[in-house]
Specification:
1 helix; eight-stranded parallel beta sheet; mainly beta; globular; 15-stranded parallel beta sheet
Length: 248
C-alpha cells in the first residue's frame, strides 16, 4: 500500500504504533501534530526510520522500549513538546545523522534504571543501550542528551545551545564520549551526576563557550560515605540518649 502524497491519521493519536512482533521500515514520511511515534514490544525486533520529519508532537517525538532494536537515520526531530527521542526502559537504539532541535524537554533521553514514578529506586533490567553518531542536537528545552542508566556511546556529534547541559550522565550510565563538539550550552558541557560505580570516558572532545563549567562531576562516593557517617553518628547519638535515660 502506498501513502505517497497523502495525509492520514487523526490529531491526538499515535502517528505510528508498532507492537506484537515483526519488522517495520518507515522512509520519507512527515509525521506531525499527533501524540508520538510509538514502537514497543516484548521481544527483540528491528524497526528502522530514515529520511523523515517528526515535529510538533503533543508528547515525545519518538518513544521506544521493551527490547526493541531501533535505527534512526537522517531524521529531523523538532518542536516536539517533550523529548525529541525517548529510548527505554530496556531499549536499544542506533541514532545517526539526525537533527534534533527545539524540543520541549531533552533532545535525546535514554535510560530506565530508575523508577521515576515511585521512590527513585534502581530498577534491575531497565537499563538501555544506545549509540549516537554524527547528530546535530541543539536548542532543546532541557539537556541535549540525558542518560539515566545503561550503556552508551556518543561520537562525532555537534551538541550546542541547549538550555541545561550538553550531556547529562547519571543513574549508573556507562558512557563513552569521544570526538564531539559541545558548545554554548546554558548550564555547561557535561554533567556527571550520581553515577554509582559506572565509568564515564571522555576523550578528544571540544568543550567550549558555556555559561557554566565545561565538565562538572558529583562525587557519588564522597556523598555515600557522608551518608554512612551521618547514619553512624545518628545511631551513636540515639544509643547515648537511651543510655542516659536508663541511668537517670
Amino acid at each position: 500500500m502506498s501513502f505517497a502524497n497523502k495525509s492520514i491519521g487523526e490529531v491526538g493519536f499515535a502517528g505510528v504504533c508498532v507492537s506484537n512482533g515483526g519488522t517495520a521500515y518507515v522512509d520519507r514520511v512527515c509525521l506531525t501534530d499527533v501524540v508520538a511515534v510509538v514502537f514497543c514490544n516484548w521481544k527483540r525486533f528491528l524497526y528502522e526510520i530514515r529520511n523523515c520529519t517528526i515535529s510538533n508532537m503533543r508528547q515525545m517525538g519518538l518513544k521506544q522500549e521493551k527490547e526493541v532494536l531501533l535505527k534512526l537515520l537522517i531524521i529531523q526531530f523538532n518542536k516536539n513538546q517533550s523529548h525529541g527521542v525517548n529510548i527505554g526502559p530496556n531499549g536499544y537504539g542506533y541514532i545517526s545523522g539526525n537533527i534534533i532541535e527545539e524540543n520541549g524537554a531533552e533532545g535525546v533521553w535514554c535510560g530506565g534504571n530508575v523508577d521515576l514514578l515511585g521512590n527513585n529506586d534502581i530498577v534491575e533490567g531497565g537499563a538501555s543501550r544506545a549509540v549516537l553518531i554524527d547528530n546535530i542536537i541543539r536548542q532543546n528545552g532541557l539537556s541535549g542528551i540525558s542518560f539515566d542508566g545503561g550503556f552508551f556511546e556518543v561520537k562525532g556529534n555537534l551538541i550546542h545551545s541547549n538550555w541545561l547541559w550538553g550531556i547529562m550522565v547519571k543513574s549508573r550510565s556507562y558512557t563513552y564520549i569521544q570526538n564531539n563538539e559541545i558548545c554554548e550550552n546554558k548550564c555547561g558541557g557535561i554533567r556527571i551526576g550520581h553515577n554509582y560505580t559506572a565509568a564515564v570516558f571522555i576523550d578528544g572532545n571540544t568543550i567550549r563557550d558555556h555559561t557554566g563549567p565545561g565538565i562538572y562531576t558529583v562525587n557519588s562516593i564522597h556523598n555515600l560515605f557522608g551518608k554512612v557517617k551521618e547514619e553512624n553518628t545518628n545511631g551513636k547519638n540515639i544509643k547515648r540518649s537511651q543510655l542516659q535515660m536508663e541511668t537517670a
